[in-house]
Amino acid sequence: QTLTGRFFRCLFAAIFYSQLILISALVIFLTLRGLLFTKSPNFHPKKWYTPLLSSVALSGLLSLSWQCLFLCNIAATAKATIILAPLLTFSVGIFFVTYGKIVVPGIGGLLILFSFAQAIHSWLFVTRRRREFTFTITALSTSVLPPRTRVIAVVSSILSVLYSAFLAAGIGGATATRKGLVDILFISLIVISLAWTMQVLKNVQVVAVSKAAYAHFANYDVINACDALCTTLRSQLGSVCIGSTLVPVFVVIRGMIRTINRGGNGSDRTMYASHGDCAWVANHMVLVGNRYGFVHVGVHNKGFVQASRDAWQEFRRTVGLEELVDADLTSSICFLSAFGIGAISALTAGIWEFNIHKDYFFQLTLYAFFIGYFVGRVSSAWLQACVMAYFVAYAANPEGANFDNTISERIARQNVEENKRLADNEVRQPEEEQEITYM
């Protein structure tokens, strides 16, 4: 650990604790000012808080229910998530377009377009073979959960619900006063704080559970997930905060590059091997920040950037493993499940508020969606952590006794498919050139 790395880890940890304290003070101030010292004739606390807080509680129940369903039947729950998430997003968009005014229908239109993007993503990337492989890896990685994993998952979900309800009180207090741009700024700060805090809470869970799972896959050691969680909070929170800032940005950019590459009849392997501008950016961003770095943060107590680099370079040591890991659908399934939970929460709060007080239905729908999405992400962190630990442990020692031939067979099939695709492209190109010549 370099001096610069220690400085940034301490800096980000200090920033995280400081924003928690400042946001808490701001929420208390806004709540007291808006509900006790300022009386607005247009704001009715019962009509505003009841739908929103009910949707927050519903998001927690849905998240816990999704975990239970996933443990009971991985394949059916994942398939239902892939199908329902675009439909629920489409429903929220239609709700905005139908009942909204001014800019609200435009936002509804964007949600409708995003629902089609989700469906297209499923059609392009979620092939049958990839689904079956993801289900197999998920079953293998969660077959033996580290002790106390379920306790951490449930407690984290409850904490996310309670924290979200606390911040919702501050948003309501700022809404009650109607002070213009100042209160809009306060609400924006609260929403940004909610997003980052939820990301940190999710990734703290990822580091702790993946550390315990890695110990099992690597050498059959048994580590209590709660002990790993205490270690993470005590000495690795700064690295988690850095990763929570970098990974969401890099995931969006690399996802766009992969989509463009796939639209140009390319593949992930050609993107990794290419030296073009976009491919260069994608190849270097994945070394600076990727979610698998959280495993090395927990296991080896590294800084996040170095952990990301080491984890991904281990994947590159085995031909085809990098493409296989990057194509894993676990993160997509967790994202879609959280999006679906957010959409259900949004519809619950929006329809309820629209029937009792139409002035605030759009704002409450958005708040409920954001809160539901992040609660869903926190609740599924343990699942993603187990899968990540399985891949990283395999990359470190593919011959380990805990691993069967599932990954090696999938890599071999992947190589055959890639060679076939390249051969088809070589045949197609001379045919196109011949047609141009005779024209």
TrEMBL record:
Keyword vocabulary terms for this entry = Membrane, Transmembrane, Transmembrane helix
Q: Tell me if Transmembrane helix is a UniProt keyword of this record.
A: yes
> Which superkingdom does the taxonomy of this entry point to?
Eukaryota
List the transmembrane segments.
7-32, 52-75, 82-100, 106-126, 151-174, 180-201, 333-354, 360-376
Q: How does it sit in the membrane?
A: Multi-pass membrane protein
**Entry keyword annotation includes Membrane:** yes
Location within or outside the cell? Cell membrane; Membrane
Function, as annotated, reads: Choline transporter.
**What protein family does this chain belong to?**
Belongs to the CTL (choline transporter-like) family.
Q: Which PANTHER family match?
A: CHOLINE TRANSPORTER-LIKE (SLC FAMILY 44), CHOLINE TRANSPORTER-LIKE PROTEIN
The name this protein carries in UniProt is: Choline transporter-like protein
User: Which species expresses this protein natively?
Assistant: Brassica cretica
